[in-house]
Design brief:
The chain is 41% helix and 21% strand. It is an alpha/beta fold and 545 residues long. The radius of gyration is 29 Å and the shape is flat.
Length: 545
C-alpha cells in the first residue's frame, strides 16, 4: 500500500497539486489520467521519491518495494540485458553480485563460508533461484528474443531498450508498481501479454497511459487529476468518462434550475415591490433569492481540439490501385510484389509487426519514395493528404504558428483566419505566435492535423497519428475520422482507435498480405486469419532456407 498525505507541489505560481490525500491499496490497478501538463508523470515521481513535494509526505508499508518504469534508455548501456532486468530488484542484485564474488575466490576462508550461508539464505528468501527463469519469461512476453539477452544494452535498438526497462520494472513482483506509458514501442501481441500480466498481478499498480483500450483492460480504479486535485473512481477509463460526464450534466442542470428560479423571483420582486398589497410577498421572495446560490463550475484543465476533415468533393469509383509494389530498404525487402485495390468508403487499418513496411508503403503512396518495381495510381477524383510518422522536417523553418499555418491556408485568408483555426486546435492567444522550433511533440501533431484539415482531401493517409497526443486529442481525432465520409488508410498501435475506425484490416507479412473486410476485434479473434498468418510466415521461412 502507498499513501500520499496533504501533498502540495507548485512551480512558481503554477500549482500542480494542493493538499492531495489519496491511498492506493494492494490488488488494485489505478489508471492515473489528466490533461497534458496536469502532472501525471510528476505525481508518479513524487510517489517514487524522485521528486520531493513542497508539503506533505508519501508513506508505504514496512519492507515494501517500489518499482518504476525508467525512461532513461542510456542508464544501463554497459550492462547486459539479463543484468538490467535483475537490477529492477536492487537488493536481490546486490546479493547476487556479492555471492558471485565470494564463489570466485581462489582461497575460501571460514568467514567466507559464514558469509556465503547468509547470502544463500537471503537469495532464497527473495526467490533468487527463480530469477533467471522469471527474467526470461518477462523478456519473452515483451518480444525480446533469446539471442539479445546476453548482449549489452547499448547494442540494442531504442524500442528494445524500452521493453527491457519495462521487464526490469515488472521483475520480482514489487509491492508497488509505477508505470508511465508502458505500451510505448510495444506491438499488439506484447500489449496483450502485458494486459494479462497486470490482470494477474496481486499488488498495487499505478499506470499512466494514453491507450484507452489498455486502461479499460487493466484498471480497477481511475484516479483523475483535475483542478489541482486527484479524485478516485471505482472502475476503468470508460466508467470514469461516463460517470464524469453524468456528474457534469447534473451540475449544469442544477445550476440551470437555480438560474431559472432566480430569474422568476427577480421578475416577481421587480413587478410587485412597489405594490403595497404584494410588498410582503416581494420581501419574502427577496429573502429566497438571497439564499439561492449558483455553484460555480470549475474550469477543467481538459481541452478537446476541434478535429473535422471536410472533403471538397466525394470520391469517384476508382480510389487507389497498387500492382506489384516492391521496395528494399538497406538491403532488406520490406515490400514484396504487393497488390491491393482500395474501394470506395474503405477505412483500412494496416496492422502487423512490420512497422517499416507500413511506413514505406505510405511514403510511396504520398510520393516521398519511389518503388523499386511495380506501380500504383490514384483515381482522377482523388486528392490525398498524408500524415507522416516522422514530421520534424515540416518545422525547420524559423516562423511562428500563424506563418506556418499560412503556408497551407487558402490564399484569400489572412491572420484572422489562421488565429481562429489555431484557436480551435488549442493554440489560443499568444500560443499562436510561438515559434515552430519550441513546439512539443503533441503540438506538432496538432499542427500536422490542421494542415490535413485545410487540404480538403477526400483520401487521408495517416501513419501513427496518435503518437504524442493526450487522451483528449486522441478522442477528438478518433471522432473526426469516424465522421469522415470518404477513404482513410492508417496505421496505429492504439487498439481503441483501430477498432472504432477501421472497416477493413490489411496485414503485411513477409510471405504476403492478409486482407479482410471486418472489424478489428473480429480480425484478432479469427481462427481463419490466424491459420493464414501462420501459413504465410511458415512459407516465407521455407523460402528463406
Amino acid at each position: 500500500m502507498i499513501t500520499a498525505s496533504n501533498v502540495t507541489l507548485a512551480y512558481g505560481k503554477r500549482v500542480l497539486f494542493k493538499d492531495v490525500t489519496i491511498k492506493f491499496t494492494p490488488g488494485n490497478c489505478y489508471g492515473l489520467i489528466g490533461a497534458n501538463g496536469a502532472g501525471k508523470s510528476t505525481f508518479l515521481k513524487i510517489l517514487s521519491g524522485e521528486i520531493t513535494p513542497d508539503k506533505g509526505e508519501i508513506t508505504i508499508g514496512s519492507r515494501e518495494r517500489i518499482a518504476m518504469l525508467r525512461q532513461d534508455q542510456f542508464a544501463f548501456d554497459e550492462e547486459t540485458v539479463f543484468n538490467t532486468v535483475i537490477m529492477g530488484h536492487k537488493r536481490l542484485y546486490d546479493v547476487m553480485v556479492a555471492r558471485e564474488t565470494i564463489y570466485s575466490k581462489g582461497d575460501f576462508s571460514e568467514q567466507d563460508g559464514i558469509r556465503s550461508a547468509e547470502l544463500e539464505s537471503d537469495f532464497a528468501e527473495m526467490n533468487g533461484y527463480e530469477a533467471e527463469s522469471e527474467a526470461a519469461v518477462l523478456l519473452n512476453g515483451l518480444g525480446i528474443p533469446e539471442e539479445l539477452r546476453h548482449k549489452r544494452m547499448k547494442e540494442l535498438e531504442g524500442g528494445d531498450k524500452v521493453r527491457v526497462l519495462l521487464a526490469q520494472a515488472l521483475f520480482g513482483s514489487p509491492d508497488v508498481l509505477l508505470l508511465d506509458e508502458p505500451t510505448n514501442n510495444l506491438d499488439l501481441k506484447s500489449i496483450a501479454w502485458l494486459e494479462d500480466f497486470l490482470f494477474r498481478f496481486p499488488n498495487t499498480v499505478i499506470v499512466v497511459s494514453h491507450d484507452r483500450h489498455f486502461l479499460n483492460q487493466v484498471c480497477t480504479h481511475t484516479a483523475d487529476i483535475d483542478f489541482g486535485m486527484i479524485k478516485v473512481y471505482v472502475g476503468n477509463y470508460d466508467f470514469w468518462y461516463h460517470a464524469s460526464q453524468l456528474t457534469l450534466r447534473q451540475k449544469q442542470n442544477e445550476n440551470r434550475k437555480v438560474s431559472e428560479k432566480a430569474e422568476e423571483l427577480k421578475a416577481f420582486i421587480q413587478r410587485f415591490s412597489s405594490n403595497a398589497s404584494k410588498a410582503k410577498q416581494a420581501t419574502s421572495r427577496k429573502k429566497l433569492l438571497d439564499k439561492l446560490t449558483i455553484e460555480e463550475m470549475p474550469v477543467s484543465s481538459r481541452k478537446y481540439p476541434h478535429v473535422m476533415f471536410k472533403p471538397e468533393r466525394a470520391c469517384g469509383d476508382i480510389i487507389l490501385e497498387m500492382q506489384g509494389l516492391t521496395k528494399e530498404i538497406d538491403g532488406v525487402k520490406v515490400l514484396d510484389n504487393l497488390d491491393l485495390i482500395v474501394n470506395k468508403n474503405d477505412k483500412i487499418a494496416f496492422v502487423g509487426g512490420n512497422t517499416l513496411a507500413r511506413t514505406t508503403l505510405f511514403q510511396i503512396l504520398a510520393g516521398e519514395l519511389e518503388p523499386d518495381s511495380g506501380s500504383f495510381r490514384w483515381g482522377v477524383t482523388i486528392t490525398h493528404a498524408y500524415f507522416p510518422k516522422e514530421h520534424s522536417s515540416y518545422f525547420e523553418k524559423d516562423m511562428n504558428l500563424i506563418e506556418w499555418l499560412g503556408q497551407y491556408s487558402p490564399p484569400t485568408e489572412g491572420e484572422t483566419f489562421a488565429r481562429g483555426f489555431l484557436g480551435r486546435m488549442l493554440f489560443s492567444g499568444d500560443e499562436a505566435t510561438k515559434k515552430c522550433s519550441v513546439l512539443s511533440g503533441g503540438e506538432k501533431v496538432r499542427c500536422m492535423l490542421s494542415r490535413m484539415m485545410l487540404s480538403g482531401a477526400n483520401a487521408l493517409v495517416l501513419d501513427e497519428p496518435t503518437n504524442h497526443l493526450d487522451l483528449e486529442s486522441i478522442t477528438a481525432l478518433n471522432d473526426g475520422l469516424i465522421a469522415f465520409p470518404e477513404v482513410v488508410l492508417f496505421a496505429s498501435h492504439d487498439h481503441e482507435f483501430v477498432s472504432t475506425i477501421a472497416s477493413r484490416i490489411v496485414e503485411i507479412t513477409p510471405g504476403g498480405v492478409i486482407d479482410r473486410v471486418m472489424q478489428f476485434d473480429e480480425y484478432l479473434e479469427s481462427e481463419d486469419v490466424s491459420r493464414e498468418r501462420d501459413a504465410l510466415y511458415h512459407g516465407h521461412a521455407e523460402l528463406t532456407l
